[in-house]
Specification:
- By secondary structure, the protein is an alpha/beta fold.
- The protein has a single domain, classed as Spore Coat Polysaccharide Biosynthesis Protein SpsA, Chain A (Alpha-Beta Complex), CATH 3.90.550.
- It contains ten helices and ten strands.
- α2 links the parallel β1 and β2.
- The mean pLDDT is about 90.
């Protein structure tokens, strides 16, 4: 399929997660989708200097409710590496997938809409909490594009264009988890949409990579009451005053 050839598919996968790679390879191969495996970054393998090049503990303390775990840091860098590749190689549009998902029957059809979808910075392809959209716009008989006041907080799968990659890389260092940072898209002039019905879903047979690397928990919950309140008020204000994008 020529449309697919012009839309790279990147699959983020830890070297130690061979079972996940096998699952994703089987699903994608069955529908004729070729992909490039992108080795996920294991945060515990990073040196302190490598972490400090990418992550700011000082800004984290100022703008997020808790310090990031090594799993969250590695996850963010894994996604940044794809965005950097897009910028370095002038890749106009791509699909980014994590390896703990189920490919739905309509996934293959999104490639026929690539000329339309690549106009948008970032489009979520999954939502494990079924957030209600604020606005809807019909794309064809199958799909609709939606925007949000409350952006889904997973990075299971998304499309991204070159402008979106550049905007996300405008931060020299990060200080929130990648999915949370995308919720603060207004800070980067980034538009974020969803494609419904969602063409991928969470594979609950697999534990989250971050939880796996963090000994069973997803994020660091230890924080001060004041710090948590400041963060939640900031996020509440954005949701009350901004949409994720204009339809």
């Amino acid at each position: 399929m020529s449309l697919i050839k012009h839309c790279p598919v990147y699959l983020i996968n830890l070297d130690c997660a061979a079972d996940r790679l096998l699952s994703m390879d089987k699903q994608l191969s069955e529908i004729g989708i070729s992909y490039e495996r992108v080795p996920a970054i294991k945060g515990s393998n990073l040196t302190e200097a490598e972490i400090n090049t990418e992550y700011s503990a000082a800004l984290n303390k100022k703008f997020f409710r808790a310090a990031l775990t090594l799993g969250e840091i590695g996850c963010y860098i894994s996604h940044r590496n794809i965005w950097r590749k897009m910028v370095a190689e002038n890749i106009e549009f791509a699909v980014v997938l994590e390896d703990d998902m189920i490919i739905e029957n309509n996934f293959i059809k999104l490639f026929s809409l690539s000329e339309v979808l690549k106009k948008y910075n970032l489009i979520k392809l999954a939502d494990n909490r079924n957030h209600l959209p604020k606005q809807k716009s019909k794309l064809d008989q199958e799909f609709e594009l939606v925007n949000f006041t409350k952006i889904p907080n997973c990075t299971t799968g998304y499309t991204i264009n070159l402008a979106g990659a550049n905007k996300l890389l405008a931060r020299e260092v990060f200080y929130r988890p990648v999915d949370i940072d995308i919720q603060f898209c207004q800070e980067l002039d980034l538009s974020v949409f969803g494609l419904r019905p969602y063409p991928i879903s969470e594979n609950k047979n697999f534990t989250s990579d971050i939880a796996l690397l963090n000994g069973g928990f997803h994020g660091n919950k230890s924080t001060s009451f004041i710090r948590n309140i400041k963060y939640r008020l900031h996020l509440w204000y954005l949701r009350k005053t901004h949409l994720s994008g204009e339809l």
